[in-house]
Design a protein that fits this description.
The protein is an alpha/beta fold. The protein has two domains: 284 residues, 2,3-Dihydroxybiphenyl 1,2-Dioxygenase, domain 1 (Roll); 47 residues. Helix content is 24%, strand content 30%. It has seven helices and 17 strands. The protein is globular, with a radius of gyration of 23 Å.
Length: 368
Amino acid sequence: MTIKVKGIHHVSSVSHHPQETMDFYTGFLGLRLVKNTLNYDDEQTFHFYYGNQNASNNLITLFPIVDSDEGKIGMGQVGFVSYLVKPNSLAFWEERLKAFNLPHYYVTRFNEKRLAFQDRNGLDYELVEGEATIENTWEFNGVTKDVAIQGIQSAQLYSSDVESTSQLLTEILGYELLHDEDEFAQFKINDEMGGLLEVRKKFGQIGTRGYGTVHHIALKINDEDVELWHQKITDAGYNPTEIKDRKYFKAIYFRDRGGILFELSTLKPGMTVDEDVDALGSELLIPKHYEEHKDIIEDRMMPVFVRPVDHLESYSYRNRKEFEVIQKRQEILAEINELKAKENLTQEEENKLQNLRREFIKAKEHLQ
């Protein structure tokens, strides 16, 4: 029996600060946070999943790591990720990119006009217009359903062995070569959103891990085929991991000969296995194998907020303790400024002012 992948399931990348990540993907891009959990292999790292109104499209996921070094995009990685938007939406996004002071430019590839930009960590994205097979009706912070990102349309692979990666796509995963140009090749698995992949043929540097790079790309497979896929990848000599239970899907990981980390992911049970649609992403969900450390984890992980923003800012705190100290200093400073605004202070107010200044300095010492 011939088995084929079904297109892109998700793309997972490494970002830097959790709140900066949340501001960009929900506040700027207008995506819905559909799961707030932890990296299954690292209890100290958030794993944010972003998608449409009910998490029924392919997903964008981020591992924000405050202490991560900056990575370098290059061979052995996924480069550009292309998001699908509805026809006549690019003008809206161009104006939004300008309003948020984000550099951007237009490029045409495979006869499609694309609006390219980076997130604040250096991840490369494109917007391309087209009709989505699943409509995103989620609206947030000025991004309406008429211009909303529908999901991932395609991703570009930067392979250190273009021939081997191309053979993996066509001979093992089931893609067909659609376009073959001097610098790029385009492959197709189906006509659905996420049914395309590209391979860039020429790219000089080797990629290094860190924030601002894609960690892996996951492709959809039928649930009943997971064992067959594990055997197929093994027989092809790719040394896959065991089948891993990621709660929301089962996964097989393997690295191709061009250095790219692939994942094969089942469609079920899906994002609604532990939250109702209305509650998606509303609370931090601790994976079961970390539950014995739940109190420690919740005391350590910084709070993150989905909120409207009109600009993108940086944050200096690295954990919950530092967040709370900074919040306390801001409260003390507000009281200090309120007292200083008065023309004549009573002795009691003078004493309070001095005490507040001492508290302010003491709070700063907790950050050092």
